[in-house]
Automatic annotation (TrEMBL):
GO terms for biological process: endoplasmic reticulum unfolded protein response; protein O-linked glycosylation via mannose. GO terms for molecular function: mannosyltransferase activity. This is Uncharacterized protein. Coiled coil: none annotated. It comes from the Bacteria. Pfam families: TPR_17.
Length: 398
C-alpha cells in the first residue's frame, strides 16, 4: 500500500470503537462473525460500495485480530464474548458470571484481501484529496473514514485519519458528526503522534470540538473535559465561556469566570469578564464595579474595563430620570422627590466622571467618549468642563 499523505494545512478515522451493545456480537463466536463480515465485504466490494465494504472490513479485522474474553453467563447459560478488558470488567462487575477465558484471535480471511484493500485505500485517498481541493468537505470526511477503516485492516492503526475526518465534517458544518468522532478520539487519549508525525494534536482536537459547539450554539460535557486538561489555555477558556453564553448555561459560565480568577488572580481580563457577567443584575452592581476596578488596578490602560465600570455606575440613571419626570409638578412632595432624585443623579455622574476622563486620556479622538463627558458635566452643571469638551468635539469635526 502506498503511504497515505494528507495536507495538514487543513488542520486550523474506523477501527471504529464498536461498543458492545448488540446481542449478536455478545453471544456469537468471533469466527462466525468474521466469516459473516468477510462475505459481506466481498459482496460490497463487488458492488463498488466502498463505505459499506470498509465498515465490513473494519469489523472483520476486529474479529480476527487481538484478543477476546469468553465468559459464561450463569443466568442465561450462554457464553458471552468481550473484545476489551474494560467491557469484560463492566459486565462481570454487575452480573452472575463464571471465570473468563482469554483467547487469542486468529486471522483467516483478512490477509487474503490485503492487495485489494490496499488498492482501494489508495483510490479513496485520491478521492479524499480531490474532495478537499474542491471544498466538498462532507464527501472528504466520508472518504477519510473509509481510509481509516481500510488502513486499520492493513495494520496501520493511525487515528490521524479519523481526526482529519472530524476536521472536514466541521468545515462542512456537520458539527454533530465531527463532535461524535472527537469524543471517541478523546476517550482513547488521541494525540496524533506516530513515527513520522511528532506534533501533538490533542489540544487542537479539543479546540476543534469547542469551535463546533460554539457555531452550533450547543453545550456538551466535553467542554469540562477540555477545561480540566487545559485550565490555562486562553483559547479553550474563551471558547468555553462563549459556548456557555450562547447556550444559556449561565451557572457554568459564572463558575468558569470564578475559577479563572483562582487560576490567574493577576489577569485583568478575568475580573473584567466576571464584572461583565454581573452588570445586568441590579443586585450585583457593586460586585460588578469591584471587578472592573480590580481589572483597572491590574491594567490601568484597560479601556473596556473603564467603559463597563461607567456603565455599572450609571445603571440606575434611567430609573432616576423616570422618577424625576414623574415628579415635575409644583406640590411640596413632588418638588422634594424631584430634588432628591436630582441629587442622586449628580452623585452618579460625580462618581463616573473620573473614569470618563481616564477614557478620554486613553482615546482623545473618540467622539462617543467626548459626548458622554459633555452630558456628564451638563448634568453636574459644570459649564467650564462642558464647554471644554464641546470645543474638543468641534475640533474633531474639522
Amino acid at each position: 500500500m502506498k503511504k497515505l499523505l494528507f495536507s495538514l494545512g487543513l488542520v486550523l478515522a474506523m477501527s471504529t470503537s464498536f461498543a458492545q451493545t448488540n446481542t449478536e456480537e455478545l453471544t456469537t463466536e468471533p469466527t462466525v462473525l468474521a466469516e459473516k463480515y468477510n462475505k459481506s465485504a466481498k459482496e460490497n466490494l463487488a458492488k463498488g460500495d466502498v463505505t459499506k465494504a470498509s465498515q465490513d472490513l473494519a469489523k472483520l479485522s476486529k474479529y480476527e485480530n487481538g484478543k477476546v474474553w469468553q465468559v459464561k453467563n450463569k443466568d442465561s447459560k450462554k457464553d458471552e464474548f468481550y473484545y476489551s478488558q474494560a467491557d469484560l470488567d463492566k459486565a462481570t462487575a454487575s452480573g452472575n458470571y463464571a471465570k473468563a477465558k482469554e483467547v487469542a484471535l486468529q486471522p483467516k480471511y483478512g490477509f487474503l484481501l490485503q492487495s485489494e484493500v490496499s488498492n482501494l485505500a489508495n483510490k479513496e485517498l485520491d478521492a479524499a484529496n480531490k474532495a478537499m481541493d474542491a471544498k466538498q468537505f462532507a464527501e472528504a470526511g466520508n472518504k477519510l473514514i473509509n481510509i481509516y477503516n481500510l488502513s486499520n485492516v492493513l495494520g496501520d492503526k493511525n487515528d490521524i485519519y479519523y481526526y482529519q475526518a472530524a476536521i472536514n465534517y466541521n468545515y462542512a458544518n456537520d458539527y454533530d458528526k465531527s463532535l461524535a468522532i472527537i469524543k471517541e478520539l478523546a476517550a482513547k487519549g488521541f494525540t496524533g503522534k506516530s513515527a513520522n508525525q511528532t506534533k501533538d494534536y490533542n489540544r487542537d482536537m479539543y479546540v476543534l470540538a469547542l469551535n463546533g459547539l460554539y457555531n452550533a450554539k450547543k453545550y456538551d460535557a466535553i467542554i469540562e473535559e477540555a477545561l480540566v486538561k487545559y485550565p490555562k489555555d486562553a483559547d479553550i477558556n474563551n471558547l468555553s465561556a462563549a459556548i456557555f453564553q450562547v447556550s444559556g448555561n449561565n451557572d457554568k459560565l459564572l463558575t468558569l469566570y470564578k475559577e479563572a480568577i483562582k487560576i490567574e488572580p493577576n489577569n485583568s481580563v478575568n475580573y473584567y469578564n466576571l464584572g461583565t457577567f454581573y452588570i445586568d443584575d441590579s443586585s450585583k452592581l457593586e460586585e460588578a464595579k469591584g471587578m472592573f476596578k480590580k481589572a483597572i488596578e491590574l491594567n490601568p490602560k484597560y479601556s473596556e474595563a473603564y467603559n463597563n465600570l461607567v456603565m455599572a455606575i450609571l445603571r440606575p440613571d434611567k430609573e432616576i430620570v423616570e422618577a424625576m419626570n414623574n415628579n415635575l409638578g409644583k406640590s411640596k412632595k413632588e418638588i422634594e422627590t424631584f430634588n432628591a432624585n436630582e441629587a442622586k443623579r449628580k452623585a452618579l455622574f460625580t462618581e463616573a466622571v473620573p473614569y470618563l476622563e481616564k477614557m478620554y486620556e486613553l482615546d482623545s479622538s473618540n467622539k462617543q467618549i467626548i459626548r458622554n463627558l459633555i452630558q456628564a458635566y451638563k448634568t453636574l452643571g459644570n459649564d467650564q468642563k462642558e464647554n471644554f469638551y464641546r470645543d474638543a468635539e468641534k475640533k474633531l469635526v474639522k
